[in-house]
Amino acid sequence: MKVAFIGLGNMGGGMAANLVKAGHSVNACDLSADALTRARDKGCAVFTSVREAMDGVEAVVSMLPNGQIVASVFENDIFGHAPAGAILLDCSTIDVGTARSVTAAAAAAGYDMVDAPVSGGIAAANGGTLTFMVGGTDTAFARAERILACMGKAVIHAGASGAGQAAKICNNMLLGASMIATCETFVMAEKLGLDLQTFYDISSQASGQNWSMTSYCPVPGVGPTTPADNDYQGGFATALMLKDLTLAMEAANLVGADVPMGMRAAELYENFVSAGKGGLDFSAIIQSLKN
After folding, report:
1. What gap in Å lies between CA 213 and CA 222, rounded to an integer?
2. Which of 12, 45, 178, 282 gives 7 a disulfide partner, CB atoms 3.0 to 4.6 angstroms apart?
3. Integer Cα distance of 118 and 116 in angstroms
4. Is the dihedral of CA 116, 119, 123, 127 positive or negative?
5. What is the CATH number of the domain that holds 134?
6. Closest to 59 in 3D by CA, of 18, 114, 12
């Protein structure tokens, strides 16, 4: 299949490369010369124009920074320029309202479309082990699934249009709050005189076990290798976690959900980003709790 991939950042570059590995022909598009060079090295044809990248494709995948950009790119450069019958997949993390409005506009233009945000971070994007949460019709999901499966370990139909985005922001609100709880627990354990590896060995097999501890431990040298072992470089940037938590708070306000833990997590990550730490992995928030 010939696929256009729009947006080759930290996540998109690896995802496009995995489509090539799976045997697809990929038209990769970005404004960054470095990103295009890396895509070319992975076997993609490269473009700086979205409209030119639409030539002859059967599917369009996007991985873009925010809802405003997603809406603009689809409305101005994809609708009417992608071939009739192409399936459209937006893997960006954006607000539910924009996801639904863009999908509605796609339907009006004659396209099937899904919102398919991801979980897993840079390593999973590169390794093809992402989890996709997909919103859209049954027909659109069936068409999108075989493309997404080339880039992930799990592709789950969350429901109608916008449901993928809803699942993503709920999941990442839980992740942000649980990471903070994990960090503060390790800080307290150390202050109480516990050896942190010993505490990890206990809690990872007890009722406090959670993903932030056992798969993404924020303490260097404890548990599996994580960004904490690389000075909190790589992984999932704190600024992106704040973006997702902000989207979650907006959604909570819209539907009247009471989310005190999510709200506090958003406040702590906002303070951490304001302190100039936005480029560090989100587990680096343990640094602020130590102080």
Report:
1. 9
2. 12
3. 7
4. negative
5. 3.40.50.720
6. 114
- Predicted model pTM: 0.92
DSSP string, 192-260: TT--HHHHHHHHTTSTT--HHHHTS-SSTTSSS--GGGGTT-SSSBHHHHHHHHHHHHHHHHHHT---H
pLDDT in 10s for each residue of the chain, 291 residues: 999 999 999 899 999 999 999 999 999 999 999 999 999 999 999 999 999 999 999 999 999 999 999 999 999 999 999 999 999 999 999 999 999 999 999 999 999 999 999 998 888 999 999 999 999 999 999 999 999 999 999 999 999 999 999 999 999 999 999 999 999 999 999 999 999 999 999 999 999 999 999 999 999 999 999 999 999 998 899 999 999 999 999 999 999 999 999 999 999 999 999 999 999 999 999 999 997
Cβ proximity of 89 and 60 under 8 Å: yes
> DSSP for 180-211?
HHHHHHHHHHHHTT--HHHHHHHHTTSTT--H
Helices (H) and strands (E) in the chain, counts: 13, 9
Question: Do 257 and 127 share a structural domain?
Answer: no
What's the rounded Cα separation, in Å, for the pair 186 and 138? 44
Range of the domain at 124: 2-160
The number of residues making up the chain comes to: 291
Residue from 270, 271, 269 nearest 283 by CA? 269
Set 42, 168, 243, 277: catalytic member: 168
Q: Catalytic site residue 168?
A: yes
What's the chain's Rg over C-alpha atoms? 20
Torsion, Cα 49 53 55 60, to 10 degrees, reads -130
Pair 180, 101 in one domain:
no
